Amino acid sequence: MAQYGFYFDSDKCTGCKSCQVACKETFGLPVDTLWRKVYNYQGGSWKLDEATGVYEPDGVFGYFVSMACNHCEMPACYAVCPVAAISKDEDTGIVTIDEELCIGCVSCRTACPYDAPSLWEEKGIFTKCDMCAALVEDGDMPICVAGCNMRALDFGELVDLQGKYGKGDVETEPLPLDSTTPSLVLNPHRDAQKTGTGTGSVVSFPEEL
Amino acid sequence: MDDQRTQFLEGTAIALAVFGILLYEEPSAERLGSLAGEGFFSEMPLAGATPRIDEGIGLLEEWAAQAGAKAPQETAAGLSAEWFRLFVGAGEPAAPPWASYYLERDPVLFSKSTLGVRQHYAAHGLELERKYHEPDDHLGLMLQFLSVVAAKENEALCAGAGEGAAALKDERQGFVSTYILPWVGTWQQRVDASSTGPFYRGLAILVSEMVALIAADAEMP
Amino acid sequence: MNQRETEKGSGISRRSFVKWSVLVGGTAALSSGLVGCGLQGSKDDPGTPGGQGEGVWKTAACMNNCSCGSSRCLLKAYVVDGVPVRLITDHTGEDTPENPQKRACARGRAQISNMLSADRVKYPMKRKNWAPGGGDKSLRGKDEWVRISWDEAYDIIGSEMQKVLDECGTRGILSTGYADIGVTYFDQFECLLNALGGAFHNDWATVSLGSWPLVELFMTGGFLAAPDSLAIQESELHLMFGNNWMANKGGNTAWQLHNAKAAGGKIVIIDPWLNQTAQGVADEWIPIRPGTDTALVLGMAYHMITNNLHDQAYLDTYCIGFDADHMPEGMPAEGNFKDYVLGTHDKEPKTPEWAARICGVPTARIESLAAEVAACKKVNFFAGQSTTKIPAGEMFGQVFYTLAFMSGGIGTPGNYVSWVGLHEGMGGTFVTAGNASNAKGLNPVNPLRPPGVVTSPNPAEWADNWDDWDQMEYSESWRSALDGEYGRDMWPKGKKPVDIRMIYTGGYQNALNSVPNANAAIELWRSVDFVLGVNPFFCASVRYADLVLPVQTWWEKFEVLWSNNGDSVYWADKVIAPYFESHTESEIALAIADKLGVDPGLVDTMTEEERRFASLQGAQYMKESYGNYAPLITITQEEIDELGVEGEPQEGLMTIAEIKEQGFYKVQRSKGDGLSNLPFAAFYNDPEGAPVATTTGKFEIFCPTLSLIVNSYGFSEIAPIGMWQANPEQGQGAQTEEYPLLLWTPHSLRRAHTVLDSVTSLREAFPQECFMSMVDAEARGIKNGDTVLMSSPYGQVLRPAKVMPTVVPGAVALQDGAWTNIDEGTGIDLAGNPNILQAPKASGQGSQSWTGTICQVEKYTGSIKLEPDKKRALVLPKGIE
């Protein structure tokens, strides 16, 4: 059994959101439904030099985190779904929500540490990234990965990604502590803050996420 | 032959055709002339079927009474501007009448829904005069299409072709459930919110109710 | 009991059936819109060979002006029976810095949603309350609309235009499109106007390039010199003033910068905010107050001079005007740059302390930055176009080039100075399509165009035929047209009269939205006799028109090969049928020409086949060495005959069938391939034998040609050397208690200028925020997400505030291009178009001062509820009852 995963290089990402919009436009997601989103995490402050009137930045930083579904090894969504609508594919490790079975109870969304399941209001169900399973089966890359303008995304078997990029660190603000073993190799930004020690905040509006 | 069924289908076919035309076409003095004055709308097929239908009829009767007192050209001009604003738009109209707008990523016209609807038309030897230039899935066109199907079903019934009639009924209900029902309520609310007069407000209610009846294939009272 | 009740039991009355069925001409009759066809379906579809369900891939033009020619990317649409259902971008084949895939950005990905938007204009239409001469003009922008026929439209246009022509000739028409139509975006209506005698235009100088053109031309002798993406890998330090390439240039530009970083370059970005590009690629960010880069550079120059860090030998050999010993003959010695910096004559040394007070960069950092730049042997000096979009913006261009010359090495690998960024973005033509717009050279030029120098009138010649030309500068044009005169008293014959009776807003422009002082534009739109709008979309400019015509996009027009930036050419397939009743520009122009009795041959100078042929025949690629071109496309005599055009067969790299199938050609590069051009290398190697094309043959740090010409326009007054000047109305130092903040206007990935603004997925990704510093927000009790009112002396907008640590205190940003949406009750723009706030401040050679408008931001306490843009609040005039 293979486990496919994403690689994301936060040290390079410019928050252009081509990944998010490519996915959204291709799959015709309605407004408010996103299968990949991009967070902008920023921190720092400013000190005023009274003598000169000049403000100096004090530890000001900012970076982006692009996140879809991490198709975790121990998916929290799978564990809580009351109608067994969620499954993890044996051959790929891809976690999928069956639209026919989903009753829209919000449990998966609540449980997911990465907010991956997204409400499709009109259908009354939750949906999420499926790693472009159909394309992957044909040997192609997920759309977000193939389209990244900064080449900050990669895709493949998790072990191969780890071999190529190292283990990375998913415990990077604004992401939570690892409780589900996400299939993600995240290369933190040079100014990244470790989860739990963060002094910044997500500046993105809720409507963007 | 089920007389009630026939009457339902006949009445439905006629009502759908009228509604479809009134939605799709720019209002003209010719068409509106016969609608103005008293009594036309209250004699609509399926009048009384639901309280909401009567509500719609009431609004249209209200319009008819006002229109009856005016010259047809004036009436048509007034409704024309309203029709344009609601269903065509300088840019985006106030109550877009195309299925794609609601069923696909909004606010796009021309999408998979359009293709699906087009296939249904083609299967009955019909196509949009302005095919490729304008969307096939305009509500006014789809109602007219349903009218054709209802009439065909009636024909089949009267000819004793039970299976053919059943197939047409299935197609009709499937078409409505897929391409109209999911969004007609939203559309009707937008018409209600944006209308400045009773005509389209009433028409939208009637359309919305009719669609629901057809989907459920309810009989007339 | 009424009749209906008695009939309930027995079913519907036959009588009602009859009444109703008469209306439709019998039961189940085909009535409106649907016609019979064979059960197979129609054969006249726009190019789909398969049956239903089967589709074809078509190359879909992503041609919109994505920030000045810096990137165009590949789009392919899967079209099923005339409906594009899926879009992909370049994703196969090599993807290296030498030969990157041309991947679309978020905007390209959303083009189906854009091109098929319900927001497009569908039919010709006029304002309900329009009457000949304008009717109630105050209703423009809030009137209802009525559909009209093309015949009626052309009748109205013909008669309204004829009135204007009879009363005051073509000068009575203000056309907001480019007069001398370009190669990619061409509107034959402009040819019609030129054929009639030329309309008034406001395209003096440029809205895009800032003050750079004349500065570069006169100081260095060239135009658009820049390193390409392979060349920048040679640099060890990238000193970048105002760089947000990801949003400004799109495509691969930011990625190529990352590649330069990976090759060992250090990226320093000096910008009012730690923007998205900088967050991705910068090694260091230096916050700066918008519009004050001149002071920063002067402070750096002072440090270099007083510590002897500058390259004196380079300056002596290649430059004029750096110090008293190297001034041109006949010029006062004390006009040199070095003495200005030292304050020798004006007693104001431009020390780092002096600079810090103006630009907000701490003194110590100015000094260390200067030392760092001086110590580095391979510096890529870059400054964004916007850095000179300030009053007297030439001053920054002057000091910028001077700094680079002081650093030395310009003309050697790794040392570059440019404002273009990457050569292939603009000016560097590695491959180009042929001229579909004017290959025959027959397009009439605008008779009213003044004699020019680059994009500005030429003061050496403009007095010769003073009354024969007319051209207004963009930012003052609305006010000038309202006032009836434009220009300056100090012009050779003073201000020039302007009397506009008609506005044409077409030609790919959305000028009401895109030029400073939009409220004045609205006032002007509402004052003239007739406004004709032509646009695919119901954008702000046409919303305020009297009559609007729907025009096709490049997804609907004829097939052609096209290009805009220099590294790729694309095929434009017909992706969709003309949307509703939209026409082409040529159809519209010819119909109106007919009404006005103008020779159609002057209006539409080439047939579609000739245009297609020209675009292919004239396509060239750079072969083996820089500037050496060869035909790209192989064309046979058979193909020429098939098109029915005149021409010769030729050999190229691809056949017509191949370019159509593939959809594009990208330049093939490799390191050392001979296609890179090292700017100024010839001059560096042989300054005597290969002088630059300036008046002295050297780089002119002291450039009297520049200052003479610029000062002739009267918008600014500059010196022959770069000198800092504060402006009393705009920029650092002009702040007041009422307007204590400075506005600057970056680009956004939500739009390409104003195009794509209505697309939901883009509105969701980019909410059109007021970006403000946490310091200023805290002082005003504003939290992230709060609705804020932004005010300037010229207007107000309402937006959600994005409060960030990454914005320099004292400045706020609003991105360009949001479609103006005025709340009629309050006059506040709810969309956040920065041009509502922007001062109409002309500058220098005729660029606009986009940066540094004074403004205020307050937490909004009024009654308007602002919904997120993605919810697409519909604002449609219900009409006047």
Structure commentary:
The complex is a heterotrimer of chains A (209), B (221) and C (881). Chain A has 209 residues and is α+β, with helices and mostly antiparallel strands. Helix content of chain A is 18%, strand content 27%. Chain A is built from 6 helices and 10 strands, in the order βαββαββαββααβαββ. In chain A, the strands form 4 sheets. Chain A has a 3-stranded mixed β-sheet with strand order 8-1-9. Chain A has a 3-stranded antiparallel β-sheet with strand order 3-2-10, with no helix packed on it. A two-stranded antiparallel sheet of chain A has the order 4-5. Chain A starts with a strand and ends in a 7-residue tail after the last strand. The model of chain A has no long low-confidence stretch (mean pLDDT 96). Chain B contains 10 helices and 1 strand. In chain B, helix 1 packs antiparallel against helix 7 and helix 3 (51-68) runs antiparallel to helix 10. Chain B has one domain (3-86, 139-216): TorD-like (Orthogonal Bundle). The mean pLDDT of chain B is 89. With 881 residues, chain C is α/β, with parallel strands linked by helices. Chain C has 30 helices and 38 strands. In chain C, strand 33 (787-792) and strand 34 (795-804) form a beta hairpin. The longest helix of chain C is centred in the first third of the chain and has 19 residues, at 150-168. Residues 1-16, 26-30, 40-51 and 874-881 of chain C have low confidence and may be disordered. Chains in contact: A-B, A-C, B-C. Chains B and C meet through helix 1, helix 4, helix 6, strand 1 and helix 7 of B and helix 2, strand 1, strand 4 and strand 6 of C.
